[in-house]
## 1
Amino acid sequence: MQSKRQPLTRKLTWLFALTSGLVIANIYYSQPLLAVVAGEFGRSTTHLGFLVTFDQRARRVEAIAKHSAVLGHFL
């Protein structure tokens, strides 16, 4: 049974682009704050840098999973 697939609208494309941009900006804007946060918690900036790295990798895995699900819907 074939389902009727909706085309990706211009509005939805802009929403995806804006959301992606905000996620990437969030990652990069957090980096200058690492020294302040590290000082507050008595940790090194290297130690807290691993948190940013972990966050980036977790988001990448999540994005790949969502991308696969979205592509499966449109293909």
## 2
Amino acid sequence: MGDDVILQYRFNEKTGTVTPKQPSAVHVKKDAGPRQLVFDPNGHDVFGVNELDGTVNRYQLNDSGLLKLVFSYSVVQAVRMTLLEVLHFQRSIT
């Protein structure tokens, strides 16, 4: 944490070595705090959780194994909206 980047490396199965890809990093929003990546079984989508700003990023993984940001979704905003909807619904039935 601290640099707000996801580093990209190529893994050589024969030698067990890793080398940086070009570009070597994918930058995320400042102070987002990228934490975990999950690879979709389809082999093309990657989801990243940013722990500091409460967002989830979706990336496309191209044939060269490089990530491209598709969108960023605010989990915090979604929870706020859900809570507001619940409060609005409760007020409408009372």
## 3
Amino acid sequence: MAATHRHGRVHADLGGVCLYDLLWALNPAERQTVYAYAEGEGTAWTEAAAVAGAPAPEALGERVRRKTKRLAAEQRRRAQQAPSPPAPGPAA
């Protein structure tokens, strides 16, 4: 399995978020659509959903596109709000 290739396209499209957290939030059909998109089996989310075997690829592809974008934005927002680690103090 080419993990770097598989996730590279999605990782770039979503602004470098943690893909494992994002994939965990998806149901199996949505996850299969993301995998198909990442593998280049569709040039658009709708095509990827069709490759993944979705009965209504237009609806699923659009839903996955919006959902992954929303989840990625939420990850970035939380990362920005995370407290910074404390500065190292003087050596004892």
